[in-house]
Amino acid sequence: MTQKGRREQKREETRRRLTREGQRLFAEQGFDRTSVDDIAAAAGVSRRTFFHYFDSKEDVVLSRHDDFERALLEAIRTAPPEAPLLRVAEQAVIAALGSFDAEEARLLERLKRDTPALGARAHGKYERLERSIAGALAERAGLSPDDLRTRLDAMLVTGMLRVGGTGWAGASAAGVPIEEYMREVVRSLGRGLALESSEGR
Predict the structure, then answer these.
(1) Could you tell me how many helices (H) and strands (E) the chain has, helices first?
(2) pTM confidence score
(3) Angle between helices 57-77 and 36-43 (to 10 degrees)
(4) Fewer Cβ neighbours under 10 Å: the N or C end of the chain?
(5) pLDDT digits over 100-117, tens only?
(6) Cα dihedral angle (87, 148, 159, 98), rounded to 10 degrees?
(7) Hey, which CATH number is domain 1-54, 3.40.50.2000, 1.10.10.10, 1.10.10.60, 1.20.1420.30?
């Protein structure tokens, strides 16, 4: 491994450690009662080092959205061109959520629900994610991100993602695997779209 590769690996390890320790502290003592200094100390780094990786403790939570987004967009871009949209979305969401365990998913949903500032920031990230999904779908289909169908498809995928991500955090507590839960989300959405289509004729 090159020196640059080792540096990048070390940076990623430090980022993961800060995220992991931040989540642990948020779960144990609450978001508001956890400071940046607490997280830095638990991760074995200085306050200054913390700010090399994150601008705030809110970003420690929302950084996992960034990880999710990268995995989701990669799964969309590499899906077979002939695959139906709902199947692409289902597989992409399953692949992206696969990096989360059930306990982490429940913690993140609880933090966003109980902390208004986090909820507002997460909402903004979903809006940006919709634009990114439109770009990935357009790239996959050879269309413009501003194409009407592409924009509507991106809205559909984002809505499915929000319902699926939020609902899975609760369903996992009952032992429902992510694959099973997302298939049910897709089936329900497909039935709804079929009903709308038949009523619109």
Answers:
(1) 9, 0
(2) 0.71
(3) 70
(4) C
(5) 777 787 788 888 888 888
(6) 40
(7) 1.10.10.60
